[in-house]
C-alpha cells in the first residue's frame, strides 16, 4: 500500500511540473499516441492467433508475434479541420520495414476489420497513409526478416 501511495504522489508531482513548464498538452498527445499504438498491437496479436498459416507469408507465427509490438507499428497523428473537428489519422509508414512485412500487417488489419461488428466498423476512425515516411528508427534488436537492407529505397 505504501508503494501505491508513493507512485500516486510522484505522478501528481510530475503532472504539476508538466503543467508549470507548459508541457502538459505535449504529454497528453504523446500518451494518446502511445496508447493507440499499444491497443493496435494488442488487436494485431489477437487476430494473428486466429489466422491460418498460409496468410503469414511463410513466416512463423511466433516470429511475427514477437514483433507485433508498438515499436514496430507506424506512426499516427490526429488531423483536424479548420473548425478543430477531428478528420482522420495521418499514418506515416516506417521506412526501415520491408514491404512484405508492411503487406502482412495490412492483411492482418483487413482481417481484423472484417471480423468487426457493423456498429464497430462504423465507429472506426479513418486513416490516411502519407507517402512521407516516419523518422523513427528501427529498434536495436530488429529481426532481419522485417528490416530492409537499404532504408532509402522502396
Automatic annotation (TrEMBL):
Official protein name in the record: Uncharacterized protein
Species name: Magallana gigas (Pacific oyster)
Disordered, as annotated region: 1-42
Regions of compositional bias (Basic residues) in chain numbering: 30-40
Compositional bias segments (type: Basic and acidic residues): 14-29
Amino acid at each position: 500500500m505504501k508503494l501505491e501511495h508513493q507512485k500516486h504522489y510522484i505522478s501528481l508531482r510530475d503532472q504539476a511540473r508538466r503543467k508549470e513548464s507548459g508541457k502538459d498538452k505535449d504529454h497528453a498527445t504523446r500518451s494518446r499516441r502511445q496508447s493507440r499504438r499499444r491497443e493496435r498491437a494488442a488487436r494485431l496479436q489477437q487476430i494473428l492467433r486466429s489466422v491460418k498459416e498460409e496468410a503469414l507469408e511463410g513466416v512463423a507465427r511466433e516470429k511475427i508475434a514477437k514483433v507485433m509490438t508498438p515499436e514496430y507499428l507506424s506512426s499516427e497523428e490526429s488531423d483536424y479541420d479548420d473548425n478543430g473537428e477531428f478528420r482522420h489519422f495521418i499514418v506515416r509508414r516506417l521506412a526501415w520495414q520491408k514491404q512484405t512485412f508492411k503487406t502482412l500487417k495490412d492483411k492482418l488489419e483487413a482481417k481484423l476489420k472484417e471480423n468487426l461488428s457493423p456498429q464497430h466498423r462504423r465507429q472506426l476512425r479513418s486513416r490516411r497513409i502519407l507517402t512521407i515516411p516516419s523518422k523513427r528508427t528501427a529498434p536495436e534488436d530488429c529481426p532481419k526478416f522485417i528490416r530492409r537492407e537499404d532504408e532509402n529505397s522502396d
